[in-house]
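ok so i was messing around last nite and threw this chain in just to see what happens. nothing serious, just curious
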Amino acid sequence: MPPADPSLSRQEAARRMSYLASLVRQWDFAYYILDAPEVSDFDYDQAYRELAELEQRFPDLVDVNSPTRKVSGFASELFASVVHAVPMQSLDNVFSLDELDAWAQRTVRGLRAAGLTLEAGASEIEMAFELKIDGLAMSITYEHGVLTRAATRGDGVVGEDVTANVLTVEAIPHRLPGGSPPELLEVRGEIYMPVSVFNRHNEAVLRAATEGEGDIAEHRDKIFANPRNAAAGSLRQKDPRVTRSRHLSFWAYQVGEASTVEFDSHLHSLDYLNGLGFPINPNIERVVGIEAVAAKLAHWMENRHSLDYEIDGAVVKLDSFREREMLGSTSRAPRWAIAYKFPPEERTTLLRAIKVSIGKTGRATPFAELTPVVVGGSEVGLATLHNFGQVALKDLREGDTVIVRKAGDVIPEVVGPVLSMRPSGLEAWVPPAQCPVCGEALYRAPGEADSYCPNFECPAQVVQRIVHFASRGGMDIEGLGESTVQRFVDEGLIASAADLYYLSAQDLVGLERFGERSVQNLLAGIDESRRRPLARLLASLTIRHVGSVAADALASRFTTLQALMAASEEEIAEVEGIGPTIARGVVAFFRDPRNLGMIERLLAGGVAPAAPEVRGGGEDYLKGRSIVVTGTLEHFSRDEAAEAIRAAGGKFATSVSAKTFAVVVGAEPGASKLNRAVSLGVPRIGEESFLRLLQGDLAVVDTGALD
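result:
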């Protein structure tokens, strides 16, 4: 939703304000009471901001009951009401560093007006930086050290009594330690569902649905849309045993009320709570100045998915309680705190069509064609639907308004439909019975979620196998992308990956967009690939379950293609990291006459995979060591660097911690990773040192040389 239209007349503004207020109230009810959000947080925030902007321009048109005049939320009638002695306020939001800086400047002006001397302005402000947990705000009251009541935030003044359910959350103390606890202590925090718990739950539901246990609609009611709604729904169960089974957790972030105990700062109060046994998020830190805040925001935007809980931003608060009192609050939010919202990872848009693609192994994957929307920092017009079972489980229909999620580098996916916005008459989607490319009947093996096209010669499979063969993770043939492969197949030049090694300049010259230079470059790339390492060849062959890690393990053990082809299933299964499932796939691949014919043709075409190099340091010299790579390396793609680290027994990590063994720094490295490495004293090495490290020279890390 765009910013408020500056050209609106007074009459038009009144209508628009009424519409937006009604919309926000509707969305609040769906979010807080039904635990079934109708829009993404981003779309909600945009509507809310537009309403606030219009109210600022037309103050005489403001409704006293406007959603901007109160804390968002409702108290459900399912539970007894609780009146908060100290209101649980919301936080104002900012979405850019400029807006954050504007808040800091307002804060400085307010403090100076209240009599505080700040010579350097915003660079002197002492703040607490904490992650904005995407969960459910909770007020927990202790009387004489015993938990007596737990309530949701509700509308900020009245919440719901969920004491029985909160008592099932193991992270929350039932009784405070020590002989003289305060007569009254109210602790505020966030109840959340860990991402690992959320994933396990949905995987179990999908597995049960796939295996045909019960009606699909029964499983549909059990699927969780996201961890936040899962936590809210779990906490509002009438039966506490259900809540206990959901394995919720808790972070304490504030003292609401306290008798006989006084604090001078926010961080002091958190230390006190931690001493009483409350879990305090380890990423809460004291920062000075808005530049330090900006550096931490950059770090967490890059590393937010390294956590086992969801965050949608960060909260910045004045640390000093005296300074907080100077600034005070508005009717809905404190002036001394602000929430910085990260770019949205969920948006709502229209599901135009559900289509099916056929992959290199014949797997039929449904995908969504969407009205393009910017999510996760990029425009998304297509999103995965995983498999036919998930489409049925989520009850997705063409024409639905859907929530789309894109988290980091993860492929965009459709979370689910917004049922309240479904047009009447939409029919349930029926998966195709035949392959949409070749017409062969699709099949699904018992107990498996995926459907497959069994036709090995299916044109879609042929193209995708060749694309995979030529990819950077495979034989790395430059200039041989999907469109080029599709064209060569359509022209009858190739029908398998092996045919690439029989192409000549005469075959290619004259094709549109294929001049003499591009032909020479492509043929040179094909020729160079003839000598790729054995692990690369194995990873490129579309052997079921064999990716780069398994390919490296097999190449290291058998050293030649012929030795692997002659190995028994038992011998292959004995290789560390392989096991019986992969072993069966390898043996089945090399027993298939079609694959054997392609292998013979590859070898006859000059493919001679290089044997694995024997590393001086031994295979496990990086065992237990975590390596982070940032920036672009000259001799490695990101996948190749990860593969090399794992092959040496190390762990390829995406974020820097105190346990990181070294950070490999390439061109244009990420500032947050470098800063984190410097602050923690983690060694930083350049690509030359990285190459020596991969040869077993651990001493390069001690020097920390950036070459």
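not much to say yet. Residues 367 and 384 are 5 Å apart (CA to CA).
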